Amino acid sequence: MIRVVLADDQSLVRAGFRALLDAQPDIEVAGEAADGEEALRLIRELRPDVVLMDIRMPALDGLAATRRVTEDPDLGEVKVVMLTTFELDEYVFEAIRSGASGFLVKDTEPDELLRAVRAVVDGDALLSPSVTRRLIAEFAARSKEPAAAGALSELTEREREVMALVGLGLTNEEIARRLVVSPLTAKTHVSRTMVKLGARDRAQLVVLAYESGLVRPGWLG
User: Fold this and answer.
1) Helical ranges in the chain per DSSP H
2) DSSP symbol at 219
3) What is the CA radius of gyration of the chain?
4) Which of 145, 137, 124 minimizes the C-alpha distance to 205?
5) How far apart are CA 155 and CA 212, in angstroms?
6) 89 versus 184: which is more confidently predicted?
7) Helices (H) and strands (E) in the chain, counts
8) Nearest to 54 by CA among 34, 31, 75, 27
9) What span, in angstroms and rounded, lies between the C-alpha atoms of 143 and 216?
10) How many CB atoms lie within 10 A of CB 201?
11) Residue 96, class by beta-carbon neighbours within 10 Å (0-12 exposed, 13-18 middle, 19+ buried)?
12) 186 with 172: CB under 8 angstroms?
């Protein structure tokens, strides 16, 4: 059973998400919070698998709450998906850097929300398909000089290649087609790369791909 905490200051939004999630045989809403401080308390108490976290909340905003979750080693298994009203929310970029496993716009289709919850539990990043490329482009535009790539020295040549493709926004299936391997093999390469680099999930791997200079803005196409 996938346990979820809902953190949003709008009770109507929480009620809608709860009704959808609780109707699934493999998902249950373990708790609800109306602000960031309450969300943190519930997360530490309940240790949910996934937190659906609104970016703008009173007391403590979703960004700050997410950073506290991702920086706490005791909460390493908790995945955070940020919720935003607008696709181009100025905080989405910082949300990914803060350790969120992805983000969704609040008017996303119900099936996409359910896929999101299940995907992040499996270790995949979740970004609304309509904005994935724009988010990566925004990251590229804001990137400064690449950081030292010393951490990449532990990767095999194939793992570096796979990491670069992840950084360009490709799914496991797309990576598999590009490299002419099975999707399972592609997923295995991605997983091993995350373990070697200490990345929480695929979203953080995208960040590392840009920060290390493995992927450059001009490659977006």
Assistant:
1) 11-22, 36-46, 62-71, 92-97, 110-121, 132-142, 157-167, 172-179, 183-197, 202-211
2) G
3) 17
4) 124
5) 13
6) 184
7) 10, 6
8) 34
9) 9
10) 22
11) buried
12) yes
Q: How far apart are alpha carbons 168 and 73 in whole angstroms?
A: 29
- d(CA 121, CA 202) in angstroms, rounded, equals 12
pTM exceeds 0.90, yes or no? no
Query: How far, in Å, CA of 186 to CA of 221, rounded?
Result: 22
Tell me the C-alpha to C-alpha distance, in Å, between residue 87 and each of 34, 64, 84: 22, 20, 7
The token pair at 109 is 């289709």
Residue, of 84 and 137, whose pLDDT is higher: 84
Dist CA 130 CA 3 (whole Å): 27
Pair type for strands 50-54 and 79-84: parallel
What count of Cα atoms within 13 Å lies in the side-chain half-sphere of residue 189? 24
Sheet hosting strand 50-54, strand order edge to edge:
27-33, 2-7, 50-54, 79-84, 102-105, 126-127
Question: Which token pair is 127?
Answer: 């970004």
SS3 53: strand
Q: What are phi and psi of 91, to 5 degrees?
A: -95, -10
Task: Look up residue 144 and give its DSSP letter.
Answer: -
Chain segment 120-176, per-residue pLDDT in tens: 887 666 655 445 555 655 665 665 555 545 668 889 999 999 998 888 778 888 899
